[in-house]
Amino acid sequence: MTSVSSTDPRTRGRSTVAIVIAVLAVIVVGFLVFANLYADVLWFDQLGYLPVLTTQWTAMAVMFFIGFATTGLAIWLSVYLAFRSRPLYQKLNSQLDRYQQVVEPLRRLAMVGIPVLLGLFVGVSTASRWAVALQFVNRTPFGQTDPVFGFDISFFVYELPFYRGVVAYASAIVLIAGLAAIATHYLYGGIRINGREVRITRPARIQIAVTAAVYVALQAVSIWLDQYATLTDDTGIVTGATYTDVNAGIPGRAILAGIAALVAVLFIVTAVIGRWRLPLIGTGLLIVSSLVIGTVYPAIVQRLTVDPNARTAEAEYINRNIEATRAAYGVDDIDVVPYDAVTTASSGALREDAETTASIRILDPALVSDTFSQLERVKQYYQFADHLDVDRYEIDGQTQDTVLAVRELNQAGQNSSSWYNNTLVYTHGFGVVAAYGNKRTVDGQPEFLESGIPSTGELGDFEPRVYFGEKSPTYSIVGGPEGADPIELDYPSGGEESDVNAKTTYAGDGGPVLDNIVKKLVYALKFQSADLLLSDAVTSESQILYDRDPLDRVKKVAPYLTLDSDTYPAVVDGHVVWIVDGYTTTADYPYSSIEQLSSTIADTYTPAPGYPIDDINYIRNSVKATVDAYTGEVTLYAWDTDDPILKTWQKIFPSSLRPASEMSAELTSHVRYPADLFKVQRSILQTYHVTNAGTFYSSEDAWATPDDPTQTNEVAQPPYYLTMQVPGSTSPAFTIYSTYIPRTQAGSDSQSVLTGYLTANADAGEDYGKLTLLTLPSQTTVPGPGQVQNSFNTDTEVANQIALLERGSTTVTRGNLLTLPVGGGLLYVQPVYVRSTGETSYPLLRKVLVAFGDKVAFEDTLDEALDALFEGDSGAPAGDADAEGGDEGTGTDEGTGETPGTDEGTGSDVDSSALKEALADYKKALDDRTAAYADGDLVAAAEADQRMQEAVERAIELAG
Predict the structure, then answer these.
(1) Number of helices (H), then strands (E), in the chain
(2) What's the confidence (pLDDT) of residue 407?
(3) Global confidence as pTM
(4) Which of 25, 224, 595, 603 is most buried, with most CB under 10 Å away?
């Protein structure tokens, strides 16, 4: 019989191979971790925000070490003490003997491994709480106190979450350590169970009793802290402590905390005297007390005192909620202006609103993206955003609302896709396209004020290349040695159909330089591309650009901000920059109503989330950020310097924010009041425009944001940016607005009658962010967006003309329905676009619908429509007066209508009188058919239908 020696070469060989594989695995994993971390270091360092990364890493490392060390040491010490105090000569039963035989060989490993493993889990969890810890250490007072405890608001925002987190982690660690001690004592005979008899050795009793005392003491602290948490609870009639909370819940928690502390003392007594009866009785008392004091007594107070007198009993606490909510959301200084809106359109009514009328935007930024693409994309490898942006520029000394788009790269549009082309050749977009918001050409196209490649127009000279944008590729490699032939496609320079393209070499500082093999290997691993290592085009002067979306870049360098969903571009100081609004938020402001941010901002253009988890009850637009489209440089400006949360983060990241005073005048002129903040505030004001507690409780005057009438599904109408003079103000300003209608119960029909009109001054300056709420009288019925859209859709003349527009190979799309407080009432304006159904099609602005009160007009231009609406003379010209497309008196109120491009203003040879005659014949036949159907005369109806068909064909032939 032979045996294999421990020195057998085969055994040694297998061991060596295993060791080598293990070492290689460790090296590979270690390098992957290193590559990921080093890539972050390179990215942040290149941007100049490395301290932001190192501060986060340091905080996370400290928090991880605290969690890991505390958990590991506590569990190890608990098991160690239990094992060391085991009875050495205790005779165990056969079952425990078998357990020991299994556990003993692994005991030393388990005593270290289990604490380490659990410590890792807790350490990772605590590391994720780095922001809470840093805010606690650097907390800034709010200068306001809560109405119950008299604490500064900062206690609830910074201290309470930290204290509760510490208690929760400590409780979990002590509980695990206690269970580990009990298991060890049982396994080694410190605890013996014999039938109904339980025997515990003195060391086991002391350890378990002390551990229980610590755990119960922590629960006492937790219950005590729960008093303060009632001020942010959202379980009552309003957020915050209500009558029952203040008079029963809070005192009850204080009593329960005292009982828990007493029970903890009883466990210490047990550790000394060895009797368990007292702490067990105390624990039972605590449980019963928690039911009686914590549940039954508050329920009795609620039922007997509050419910029969809720309106008066809760009045004080509702007032607290109203005041706190309005302050936390920044709507406490809103100007409420009664607006006795008239509903009768009279001649010259818009004369006092001439500047507003001239600025009315008829270009819908949500519809004209395809028009911009067809007219200005130039090549298939360019693209525009689906929803364009509204801004304003000074043109010829006057501020002009514009619709602006960045011509970004679309790599899917190139003919030859390869790593080389995608990464080295097609690297950037080029230029911007801007159109007047209040104008159009005679054929319905946007009137561009900046267009073409290279860009020319009214915006002056600027760097047109867009390396950083919302549609940029995942990564590009740019730059090269001085004097080398450029390989990046710059723009098509030989005309739209030419294959001659200008080339360029990136000259900015936009990404880490790939100047050594380690960096190339790091990014080859990051982007899983061997070509990055092997390509000769990647030189030591090459830069790699990635994380190019402006939102992503700002989010990485300012992780404490909540960012507005609408990033917009602007041409500023010779550069295209993306402007990003950043918010500081919390959900711990006492008594303030809690909103789900992502649900609150959902509307036609912002989709609702599946699972909203971003609760807030305080928000400030504290930071304005810019991202340079060429260099990718991120600049953060402290906009709201009074915000205590921002002050706290400035202490944490002292070098990352610049004062707003460093913003150039041109950049400041493009700052606007952010849409998401406005949507949150309009949501709050649906209820909190009411400041009387009784009215608030009864929901007698609750409002709602109307649904978008241009959509078939129920989504909120978005707010719109317009230049207007709000009633009560002294001059026009770039403004964001929204409307209100009465709130109705679920399942009942909504009443689209205007109750309020909310605006915010969007221009930087003294009145920036000034909120104005126009309240409409309840005695006068002012149509809301839904009613007006219904009037547009059912008006006979409008329907006839729409039917004509839709015959053949065209479709009609109604644009955004705008509401303006002019002429002493509310004017509605809706552009109407016509689009071919052919292969190459894009919407053209052909008509404009307007309404005032119950009167409707439908004309080729806004200027004509307003004149038709206001008895032949609106009193003020609109911005599209130069694009007149029809004769006088063609509005729907005059009983006639025209198709677009049927007058002399369009430059066509259409016989206008003959076309009018055909349309009149169509209307006469339509009326005859309606009357015939009413009389049951099918023969006459068929004859009238034939005349309608002939009239339509004649009109189409005349219109060409």
Answers:
(1) 30, 34
(2) 96
(3) 0.87
(4) 595
